[in-house]
Every structure is written in structure tokens, then in C-alpha cells.
Amino acid sequence: MRVIKAKVLGFCMGVRRAIDLTGAEAQRAAKKNSQVFTIGKIIHNKRALDEITALGVRFEDELPANGANCSVVIRAHGISPAVETDLREKNYHIVDATCPNVKLSQLKAEEFIRAGYGLFIAGDVNHAEIIGIAGYAREAPLQEAREAPLKEAQISNQIFCEVVGNAKDAGKAAKKLYGLNHDIKTAIIAQTTISEADYYKISEAVRLFFPNLEIIQTICPATKERQSALRELFEKTDAVIIAGGKESANTQHLFSIAKESGKPCALAEDASQISEEFFKYETVGISAGASTPDSVVDEIEERLIKSHLS
User: Fold this and answer.
1) Cβ atoms within 10 Å of 57's Cβ, excluding its own
2) HEC profile for the chain?
3) How many CB atoms lie within 10 A of CB 217?
4) pLDDT for 180-191, tens place per residue?
5) Residue 297: partners with Cβ closer than 8 Å, 6 or more residues away
6) What is 101-215's CATH number, 3.40.1010.20, 3.10.450.350, 3.30.479.30, 2.40.50.140?
7) What digits encode the pLDDT tens for the residues 16-31?
8) How far apart are CA 38 and CA 121, in angstroms?
9) Tens place of pLDDT for every residue, the chain, 310 residues?
10) What CATH number should be reported for the domain whose range is 13-98?
11) Which residue numbers are catalytic?
């Protein structure tokens, strides 16, 4: 058997940075006998999570009310301004590991709302990254209102920020905004891990109502590189395995692309999840999500080769 790995593999810059910052904070906290938390999982990969947990880091959806002598690492997906304010008020030491690309999206969303735009955010409404970006769009003007004559309700009614997960939802949201103000300037930004094809479809659905829509390219370059590298594998292989966590958005997007290709494909979190079907192929490609450690990819490659030889 011949195994071909995609040209782009391993942790992306944002994930690597978040892991490094978390590890460094865990070492600092250990010396001071303090606790380290993250809001939710710092990375969507079980092996990497196990290694971080071994350092004493705790992953919580809700943190203790008193953050004295505690650190919280903001994961690469980022958080909303309201959540960050709450953490500071509870006396947490904050380590901001928000991916720089995500941070740019957050600030851009806030900028558009302050400029009076109607804003569309393309992505999964339940994804932590999107929740954080939408928070920057919706909350920052309200923060100003607390120090201004206008009431928060008046400001809130002037904000249009809709998260749209597909072209159908985008069309509905655009129609809604058109009915409210068809002359408003509009913009759209995307979840950093969305596929270019999905972003294009969503943007075109909005452009039917707002032809002058400003489409901001917020898809992470690493995401596009991984998706392009995966497509290159289709021409060289009989089947493809996507290595990564099932909870990882960018891994799921890679898996969707693989399924659309028509090639036999599977998503495997580790080598034990490879089905025997893949041992019969002459050439198998391996792609991996941005949160997948190199060790997982190497083990999948080793099992494919050994199983074929046996």
C-alpha cells in the first residue's frame, strides 16, 4: 500500500499558539499553587486534551464565581466582550489565546456595526467562534449606551446582526433586513473554518437583495490551504481518511469535501477507528484537521501500511 499525506497537516498557528500559552500558564500556576481553567475545550482532539489535562488544566463550561488565585485561558475560538468583562469582575487572571485571525473578525464585526451596517455572519450559530464574533457586534454598542443618553433598547433596535448557516437562512435574513431598510449598507464575514463554496453560496443569497454587499474574506488561510491540499489528494488516491476530532468544525468541513468528491472516505479520531475496508486499497490519502496532532497522523499511516503488509 502507498500512503500519501496531504501537503498541509498538523496544528494550525492559532491552535499551536493556544496550546503553547495554556502549557506556559499551567507551569506558572503550578509554581503558585493556583488553578487554570479554559471555557470549554481548548482543542477538539482527545489526545491533545488528555495531555493538557495532565498539566492540571480544567475545561469548564461554567467557571467558579470567585476567580481569585485562578487563571482562565481564552481558547483560540475567542469569547464575547460580556464574558470577558464578567471574568475580570470575578478577579480571574486572563490569558488571551484567541487566534489572531478570529480576533480580526471580532474587531471587524464591531467596526461594521458601529458604522451603521447591517451585518451577516456566515457560520454555525452554536459554534464558540461565531458566538464570540456576534458578541462583539451586538454588545459593544450597548456598552457605549450605558454611558450615553440613549437607552440600551434604542441602540439594540438599531443593530442588525444575523448569523446565517446556509444560503436559505441567508436569503431569509436578507429579505427581513430589506423590509426594514433597503438602503442600508451591508457586509458579511465568515467563520474562519467555513468552506469557500459555502461562503460563496451564502454571500450570493444576500446579494440578491443587497447587490453592493461587502464580502470580507475572513476564512483562515490555513483552512483554505488544507482544503486545497485535500482536493489534490483525490487525483492521486483510491480512498481518503480525514484524521481529527468529530467535534472539530474544520475537520468536519474536510470530511464533507471528501464525501462530495465521491471517493471512499472516513473520519478517524485515531488509528483504532480505521475500518478494514481501507486496507484493501492500493493508495490511501490522509488529510487532517487543524487540531490534529502529528502523532495521530503518523499512527494512522503506520497502521494502514502494517495492515496491508499482513
Assistant:
1) 21
2) CEEEECCCCCCCHHHHHHHHHHHHHHHHHHHHCCEEEEECCCCCCHHHHHHHHCCCEEEECCCCCCCCCEEEEECCCCCCHHHHHHHHHCCCEEEECCCHHHHHHHHHHHHHHHCCCEEEEECCCCCHHHHHHHHHHHHHHHHHHCCCCCCHHHHHHHCEEEEECCHHHHHHHHHHHHHHCCCCCEEEEECCCCCHHHHHHHHHHHHCCCCCCEECCCCCHHHHHHHHHHHHHHCCCCEEEEECCCCCHHHHHHHHHHHHHCCCEEEECCHHHCCHHHHHCCEEEEEECCCCCHHHHHHHHHHHHHHHHC
3) 10
4) 999 999 999 999
5) 5, 9, 10, 243, 286, 288
6) 3.40.1010.20
7) 999 999 999 999 998 8
8) 25
9) 899 999 998 888 999 999 999 999 999 998 888 999 999 888 888 888 899 999 999 998 889 999 999 999 999 999 999 999 999 999 999 999 999 999 999 999 999 998 999 999 999 999 999 999 999 999 866 555 445 554 444 445 578 999 999 999 999 999 999 999 999 999 999 999 898 899 999 999 999 999 999 999 999 988 889 999 999 999 999 999 999 988 888 899 999 999 999 999 999 999 999 998 999 999 999 999 998 999 999 999 999 988 766 5
10) 3.40.50.11270
11) 129
Residue ranges of domains in the chain: 2-11+221-309, 13-98, 101-215
CA atoms within 13 A on the CB side of 71: 24
CATH code linked to domain 2-11+221-309: 3.40.1010.20
Residues in a beta bridge with 240: 265, 285
The whole-model pTM stands at 0.84
